[in-house]
Amino acid sequence: MFKLYLQLGFEHILDVAAIDHLGFLLVLVSSINPKHTKKLVGLITAFTIGHSVSLAAATLNWVDIDTGIIESLIPITILISALINLAPTKILPKNNRLLFGTVIFFGLIHGLGFSNYLSEAMRNSDKSILIPLLGFNIGVELAQLLLVAPIVIIGSILYNRNEKFNEKLWTYTGSGIGLIISLYIIFG
Amino acid sequence: MKAFLFSLCLCLPFESSLHEYFFSHTDIIEKETTFEISCNIFIDDLENMFEADGFKALNLGTTKEDPRVDSLLNNYVKDKLKLNINKQAASWDWIGKEVSEDLMSFWIYLEVPKKGKTNTFSIDNKILTESIAQQKNIVNVLLEDNTKRYLLFQKASKTKIIK
Predict the structure, then answer these.
(1) Distances (CA, A) of B85 to B31, B70, B137, B146
(2) For chain A, which terminal residue's Cβ has fewer other Cβ atoms within 10 angstroms, N or C?
(3) Residues 46 to 75 of B: which have CB under 8 A from any A CB?
(4) Neighbours of A160 (CB within 10 A)
(5) Are B28 and B37 in contact (CB under 8 A)?
(6) Is B103 part of the contact surface with chain A (CB cutoff 8 Å)?
(7) A96-121 and A19-30 helices cross at what angle (nearest 10)?
C-alpha cells in the first residue's frame, strides 16, 4: 500500500496537471542565488513543512475547505510570489522571517490542493490513512527534489561560467516563467 | 499593485479551475468458495464513455435508468477487468450494483466461483483507461493465504501477476 501511494504522489507532481507546483518551486528557487544552498534548502523545507501539515490535517479530516477555492488560490500564490520577485524594489527578502512565513503559508495552501487528489485516491477506502498519507507525501517530496535539483544545478553552472549572468537575470527568468504559468492556470 | 491583485481575485473563475481526478477502486477478496469483487466507478465517467459508444440518455444511477444498463455494465467490466485464475480466464456472476452514498459512483458486485485451490492469479484492469488518459485504477487483492496486494493500473499498465 505504501508503494502504491508513493507512486501516486510521485506521479502526481510529474504530471502536466501539476504544473502549478513546478511553477511555485521555480519562483521559489529563482528568488535566491543558487550558490546560497543553505537558504535554498531552508526555503524548500519550509514549503514542504507547510504542505505536509495541511495535507495531513485535511486527510485526517481536521480541516474541511472548499476545494474550488483552494484550486484557485494555488495559482494566486505563484502569481504573488512571482510579482514579489519581479517588483523593482525588494518587498520581502530583506526580512527573512516574513519570507519564511509566507513560504510556509503558501505551502499550507498547496497541501490542501494535494489532499483533494489524495482523498480521491483513497476514496471508499476504510483502511489506515497514515500509510497512504506517508507514502503520498514522500512521493511528492521525491518528485519535487527531482524537479528542483536540475534547476539549481543549471543555475549554479550559469553563475560560474558566465560573468554576465547575475542574480537579477536568474530571478527574472525563473519568476517570469512562473508568472506565465500562473496566468495560464488562472485564465487559460 | 494591491488594486490589481484584488481585482484579479474578484474575476477568478472559481469553478472552472477545478481539477478533475479520475480513479476507480476494486476490491477482490478470496473466500472459501468464491472470489468477491466490488468495483467502484464514477457514474459520470461511465456515462461519457457509453455516450461516446452511441448509448445516449442511459440516465445512469437515476430512477429513469435504461433497463439495459446492468447488462451493458456487466459486459463492459467483463471486457476491461480480466482475472486469470489457475491459468484460466475467470468468469463471474453479476450480483448487482448500487449507487454510492454521495451519489457520485456505482458499486458493482461480482462473484467468481472457485474451482479448487488457487495456484496462480493474475489481473488486468483497463476500466476507462482507453477513454480517459489520466484514469488510474486501484485494485486491492486479498487471497486466502493472506497474500495482500495494492495495485495501480493506468493507460500503459500490463497484466500483473500476483501468484
Answers:
(1) 14, 25, 20, 16
(2) C
(3) none
(4) 11
(5) yes
(6) no
(7) 170
A125: left (phi over 0), alpha (psi -120 to 50) or beta: beta
Q: Give me the pLDDT at residue B80, please.
A: 95
Are the beta carbons of B11 and B21 closer than 8 angstroms?
no
Count Cβ atoms within 10 A of the Cβ of residue B97 and give its class: 0-12 exposed, 13-18 middle, 19 or more buried.
buried
ipTM greater than cut 0.90: no
Asked if residues B85 and B121 have their Cβ atoms less than 8 Å apart, the reply is yes
pLDDT at A140: 92
Cell triple for A89: 524594489
Q: Which residue has the higher pLDDT, A92 or B113?
A: B113
Question: CB within 8 A of B3, min separation 6: which ones?
Answer: none
| Of residues B1, B12, B40, nearest to A72 (C-beta) | B12
Cβ contact B18–A71 (<8 Å): yes
Cell for B69?
444498463
**pLDDT for residue A139 is more than 90:** yes
- Indicate whether B46 pLDDT > 80: yes
Closest CA to A28 of A184, A188, A182: A182
Cα B153 from Cα B157, distance rounded (Å): 5
Distance of alpha carbon A41 from alpha carbon A29, whole angstroms: 9
Of B3, B22, B9, B14, which Cα lies nearest the Cα of B138? B22
Cβ <8 Å between B136 and A8: yes
Residue with cell string 481585482: B7
- Whether A88 has its CB under 8 Å from any CB of chain B: the answer is no
Q: How distant is the alpha carbon of residue A83 from its chain centre?
A: 16
The phi-psi region of residue A89 (left if phi > 0; otherwise alpha if psi is between -120 and 50; otherwise beta) is beta
Residue A90: other Cβ atoms inside 10 A? 11
Pairing of strands B81-85, B88-89: antiparallel
